[in-house]
Amino acid sequence: MRFYKISFLVLFVFMYSCSSAQINKLIKDVTSGQIPLSQDEVAEGLKEALEQGIVKGTDLASKTDGYFKNEMIKILLPEDAQKVEKTLRNMGLGSEVDRALLAINRGAESAAIEAKPIFVNAIKQMNIQDALGILKGDATAATDYLKRTTNAQLVELFKPKIQASLDEVGATKYYGDLANSYNKIPLTKQKVNPDLNAYVTQKAIDGLFVLIAEEEKNIRENPLGRTSDLMKKVFAQQD
């Protein structure tokens, strides 16, 4: 009995020393489960969120029409070819243009799934300071972190996979034929570069980041997008 009296007295003294606002916040945190998390828990929660975004993003992109029928990430002809696309279509090469476009996007779709382990490895390298900065950052802070830390590595490792994919679906040949047809037009001053690899590699990677950013926004803004208890606790701190 004496123990309960002492416990009540300690609790009373603690609450008396707090402002009403502090007491209300404490009650809210306790009842809602929003007890302050450790830095390690914040980092793990953010890693879970990023991995969720990566899995969804790469799965979506690697499906048939994952790039081709998604206007956010569809890969168009390279800029120099876009400038002459109308001329090519007027010359009766419209079907060749369309075939090259489809093949380019099929190449990206085929290679997209290869990015998943590269992204996941980058997440494992995230430290606590990175995580805390991301939590308080803007709607795509985690994706921006991933972009800063993986883009160069992704280009290096992704490029041969893109080349293999482009060759497999015939994109290299179709686009090369298209570019060479235009370059043979008499008096053509602006030549089209027939090399697709570097262009499609970066566009494919950019498209993945777009999808990951969309999932990050969903997790930050929509509580239903948080699929684990730890994610719910971490992102509840920013709501």
What does this structure look like?
74% of the residues lie in helices and 0% in strands. The chain is mainly alpha-helical. It has helices at residues 2-17, 20-32, 39-62, 79-82, 85-112, 115-124, 128-135, 141-169, 171-183, 197-221, 229-236. It contains 11 helices and no strands. Helix 5 packs across helix 8, helix 5 (85-112) crosses helix 10 and helix 8 runs antiparallel to helix 10 (197-221). It is elongated, with a radius of gyration of 26 Å.
Supply the key terms.
239 residues, mainly alpha, 11 helices, single chain
**Number of helical elements:** 11
Task: Give a quick account of the main beta sheet: strands, pairing sense, barrel closure.
Answer: none
Give the SSE string. HHHHHHHHHHH
Number of strands: 0
Q: Mean pLDDT, as a whole number?
A: 76
Work out the strand percent: under 5%
Ends: how far apart? 42 Å
Question: From the alpha-carbon coordinates, what is the Rg to the nearest angstrom?
Answer: 26 Å
